[in-house]
Amino acid sequence: MRVLVTDPITDVGLDVLRDAGHEVETGYELEGDDLLEAVSDANAMIVRSGTEVTEEVLTAAEDLVIVGRAGIGVDNIDIEAATDQGVIVANAPEGNVRAAAEHTVAMTFATARSIPEAHIRLKNGEWAKSDYLGTELNGKTMGVVGLGRVGQEVAKKLDALGMEVAAYDPYISEERAERIGAELVGLEESLERADFLTVHTPLTPETEGLIGEEELDTLGDGYLINCARGGVVDEEALATKVGDGTLAGAALDVFAEEPLSPDSSLLEYDEVIVTPHLGASTEAAQENVATSTADQVNAALAGEPVANALNAPSIDESAFPRLEPYIEIAETAGKVAAQLLDGRIENIEVVYEGEIADESIEFVTASALKGIFEPLKWQVNAVNAPQIADERGVDVTESKTRQSEDFQSLLSVTVSDDNGNEISVDGTLFADNDPRIVRVDGYRVDAIPHGNMVVTRNADEPGVIGFIGRVMGEYDVNIAGMFNARETIGGTALTVYNVDSPMPDEAKEDLEADERIIEINDITLNGQ
Ligand code: NAD
Ligand code: MLT
After folding, report:
1. In terms of Cα–Cα distance, which of 174, 229, 219, 170 is closest to 197?
2. Which of 77, 147, 163, 216 could form a disulfide linkage to 151, CB 3.0–4.6 angstroms apart?
3. Range of the structural domain that residue 464 is part of
4. What ligand 2 atom has the least distance to the C-alpha of 48?
5. Ligand 2 pocket mutation, candidates 5, 96, 232, criterion most atoms within 8 A of CB
């Protein structure tokens, strides 16, 4: 498979990809048509913050399975478009947290003690000792906006430095904040109490411009530190507030437009110290994020669940070997059920019985949906299947019970359509890795889900099975196996045939012409 890496990651990560047998192409600073051409035959793409993965890029990348982000922020990736196109987006959320937190603390000290400016003046031969009177962090209050991974790591470090932490994060519990020595308050209170304010939210429509003119006024004679994302702080307002002396200073690692233009007004003030997005730039962090991203790309290209997928259900690595066969059964049961119905699908129910009920089954359900939607020729995979269901108004329910009458684990997929028809297909694993369909519409069968199948409903009368076999033979359809079940003697029988080739329409018509045949469906599965 071909992996295109468009922002630099360490060689360790590239080696992880090559060791898995992938062809790795690096193309840094690709833009416009060059980028579109480079992605056109890529199966995976790895980026940092430098590449804009737009809808146009995703559309050009027809064979793309995954976009791996070697880092945390995914504001440069159109996740919605990726989901629409069934492309996984995965990041590496842990690997550079410490590096980003350390950089934040370093930037706080740097601005509080005017280190960059004093450094430059001394390098230029000036001993400006009397010009600088710094601010101690000990005993001061840091306002933290966004108390996620980086924010929490920063708060812990500041607590150890003797700072009070007044944090604002509407999505985190007071208990969690307390555990790391932070007090959870509203945004206004955080700004009012802060001597320093540090921002650690993602850039989203909600957080864009979160710290604007008004907020900076409330912060008053304090320092603003931003090592998260440029757009969260209004840069123009920031420059103005530093320029008119409202703010004591600012330390910025990130900017609304990167690279920062040399003409930016932010560069006019000694009180604004800047670094070129270096928060994650440590050897350890870069190795961490590169290997984590490469591992996830390898998993996605191998068809395995991806640990930090942001737009697809994921499975714990340790649970994957147990769940893998059920993922296949769910998809197969979905495919069979969808091909046994004619109408517009309205409801889907996936029921888990027995031991599998103890597992996290989100990905398995997504696979059942993929199986149901695929025969309808919708461009679907486990990434976009839940969204497709949602968009088309298909109701999906999932339920679990520890009880299972006959099997260690049983997975049942029930689909109903707008004609009022409903069909359920149940699957299980024999001897731990032998997938079987064990019930179709309540009829007990024992079918190997593979290749081409034919499901018939017919009168339970002598000679009917012989008749079906003879017609199939006339059309050169070889029967590899069959499983017959019936409601009552002389009632309706349901038979599942495994056949070596698809059944021609003429054969179907011949069979349907016989009044003993109630219904006949041919089913195509993968793996012929
Ligand atoms: P995270 O997702 O773990 O945490 C973000 C936190 O922000 C969450 O707790 C969330 O609840 C909170 N949040 C969301 N909306 C909010 C709002 N409107 N107001 C207040 N809080 C809000 O992310 P993280 O890993 O901690 O990363 C934080 C930021 O740092 C991201 O923007 C990331 O891209 C950036 N980052 C930058 C560098 C760098 O090199 N400078 C390195 C790593 C991370
Ligand atoms: C991140 O969000 O992880 C940072 O932007 C780090 C980076 O990739 O430079």
Report:
1. 219
2. 147
3. 451-523
4. 8
5. 96
447 phi/psi in degrees, rounded to 5:
-105, 140
Compute the distance from residue 347 Cα to the ligand 1 centre, in Å: 38
Contact 280 CB / ligand 2 (< 6 Å): yes
- Whether residues 196 and 212 share a domain: the answer is yes
Residues 197 and 191: their CA atoms lie apart, in Å, by: 7
Residue 306 lies in a domain: no
CATH code assigned at 73: 3.40.50.720
**Residue 96 beta carbon below 6 angstroms from any ligand 2 atom:** yes
Read off the pTM.
0.84
Helix 283-301 with 97-112: angle, nearest 10 deg:
150
Q: For residue 410, what is the domain's CATH number? A: 3.30.1330.90
3-state DSSP assignment of residue 194: coil
Domain-embedded: residue 403: yes
- Together in a domain, 351 and 294: no
Distance (angstroms) between ligand 1 centre and the Cα of 146 equals 6
Centroid of ligand 1 to alpha carbon of 522 (angstroms):
52
- Starting from the CA of residue 197, give the closest ligand: 1
402 alpha carbon to ligand 2 midpoint, in Å? 43
Query: Does the active-site annotation cover 277?
Result: yes
In a domain, 309, yes or no: no
DSSP 434-445: EEEEEEETTEEE
Catalytic (active site) residue 258: yes
Q: How many residues would you count in the chain?
A: 528
Check if 229 is active-site: yes
Q: What's the domain count of the chain?
A: 4
Residues 47 and 168 in one domain: no
Question: pLDDT tens, position by position, for the chain (528 residues)?
Answer: 999 999 999 999 999 999 999 999 999 989 999 999 999 999 999 999 999 999 999 999 999 999 999 999 999 999 999 999 999 999 999 999 999 999 999 999 999 999 999 999 999 999 999 999 999 999 999 999 999 999 999 999 999 999 999 999 988 888 889 999 999 999 999 999 999 999 999 999 999 999 999 999 999 999 999 999 999 999 999 999 999 999 999 999 999 999 999 999 999 999 999 999 999 999 999 999 999 999 999 999 998 889 899 998 878 878 888 999 999 999 999 999 999 998 899 999 999 999 999 999 999 999 999 999 987 766 788 889 998 899 889 999 999 999 988 899 999 999 999 999 999 999 999 976 789 999 999 999 999 898 999 999 999 999 999 999 999 999 999 999 999 999 889 899 999 999 999 999 999 999 999 999 999 999 999 743
Handedness of CA 469, 471, 476, 477 (dihedral sign): negative
> Which residue type sits at 169?
D
CATH number for 479:
3.30.70.260
Judge if 342 and 293 occupy the same domain: no
User: In sequence order, which residues have a C-beta less than 8 Å from that of residue 486 and are 6 or more positions away?
Assistant: 443, 460, 492, 493, 494
